[in-house]
Amino acid sequence: MTDTPQNFSQPHSQSDVDVESLLQSLRRKEGTWVEWGQACQTLQKAGYSPQAIFEATGFEPVQQNQIIVGGQVFTSAVSAGITDAVRTHFERKGSDLLYEFRILTQPERAAAATLAAEKGIDVDEARDVAKAIKDFSRLGTVPEGFTTHVGDAIAYQCWKLARQKADLQERSRFIARGLRFVHSDEARKQIERLLTDFSVVPTATAPLLPVYRLEADEDLPRVLPVVGKLPLTKADLQAVPMVDAIQPFGIVKFEGAAAWVPVPGWQVILMATDPVVLLCDSQMFPVPLPGKQGDVLVIVDRAQREWRNDRYFIVEEADQIQIKWSELPPDEPLLGEVILIMRPKKILDENYTKDYFGRRPGYDGWQTDE
Question: Do the beta carbons of residue 83 and residue 101 sit within 8 Å?
């Protein structure tokens, strides 16, 4: 028996996977490419990286992905219903073609696979076929003169593109392609009319998408749970669960009643392990905040409970949460460290601000001092 490479990570459960048998089968390329894909997928699920599989079998990571996904499309098409001839055709070859059909629904995959086998298309054509079928499925209604058959879907795309071309050579190329794939007689007539009708339909260009990339940590707020407004109890603090944001956008999932507040992604916020928010009056601190009195956000990291004399902490006194500083270690258990106090942003002219900054992505209107 051949030794397993050292850089293989340990699988989650070796008892259900005959690793050596799968590796040997892949090295010898036994069975069909569909079975190779299933073997690669089984090994990956067992904890082996694509790179480790490559080093043990010669199947490159990109090839593994192609045969795994192509195999899934093949299985999906078989389940939807394809002929034995089409099935046999793709068992021999065609993982690259079926990989392109991954964007289609199960019935569309079966229809596209049948068309591909009948027309003998290559991988570039498969990509165009998949796009044409997908675009056709997005139409609200079936265009006049065409049917829902995949051949007519491709023919419609060719008909539409041909009408937009003034150059006769390009126009003829799309007409020829449409006639190759067209299915219904009425759709064929629609395309054949373009042989004598040379009018050009202007191309409607899709508008640019309003894409904005976040460039700095501060651009992406961190959403924190709000415990409530002081006075609060220790039970109130403990009732709020720890939040696990889903990256890369910091999406937060939560079941039940809760209040949330977004705060800027400043370093002190990002470094907090278990931050929660308290709402309190600016005069309730051991040293009242200067400036105008009002509500402020107090961000507390519940995970930080080691006393330091240069930090403020929250403790429980007389069954209520208090914000406290002490020169010496306090007698009360620490419930969390105050890592940031945030005032609301200062708005000089709210209507002007909305008009001027309302459409500016990335505008940072937060102010943290007076």
Answer: no
What are the residue ranges of helices labelled H in the chain?
19-28, 33-45, 50-57, 61-80, 84-92, 95-100, 106-119, 123-137, 150-163, 168-181, 185-192, 234-239, 267-270, 350-357
Q: For helices 150-163 and 106-119, what crossing angle results, to 10°?
A: 80
Q: What are 277's strand-pairing partners?
A: 226, 299
Backbone angles phi, psi at 17, to 5 degrees: -125, 120
Q: What's the CA gap between 283 and 295, in Å, rounded?
A: 9
Residues 245, 253: Cα–Cα separation, whole Å: 8
The answer to whether 317 touches 326, Cβ cutoff 8 Å, is no
**Spatial distance between the Cα atoms of 116 and 97, rounded to a whole number of angstroms:** 8
Q: Which stretch of DSSP H or E encloses residue 339?
A: strand 336-342
Contact 263, 256 (CB under 8 A): no
Print the SS3 string covering 112-173.
HHHHHHHHCCCHHHHHHHHHHHHHHHCCCCCCCCCCCCHHHHHHHHHHHHHHCCCCHHHHHH
Decide: residue 235, CB within 10 A, 0-12 exposed, 13-18 middle, 19+ buried. Answer: exposed
Q: Are 324 and 347 in contact (CB under 8 A)?
A: no
Handedness of CA 284, 289, 293, 298 (dihedral sign): negative
Distance of CA 247 to the CA centre of its chain: 10
Which residues are 336's β-sheet partners?
314
The structure tokens listed for 271 are 């470094």
pLDDT-derived band at 265 (thresholds 50, 70, 90) equals: confident
Instruction: Kindly tell me if the per-residue pLDDT of 5 is higher than 50.
Output: no
Detail the DSSP E strand segments found in 206-327.
222-229, 259-263, 275-281, 295-301, 313-317, 320-324
CB 322 within 8 A of CB 284: no
165: amino acid identity, one letter: K
Angle at 171 between CA 165 and CA 175, to 5 degrees: 130
pLDDT tens by residue, 177-216: 999 999 999 999 999 999 998 888 887 676 776 767 777 7
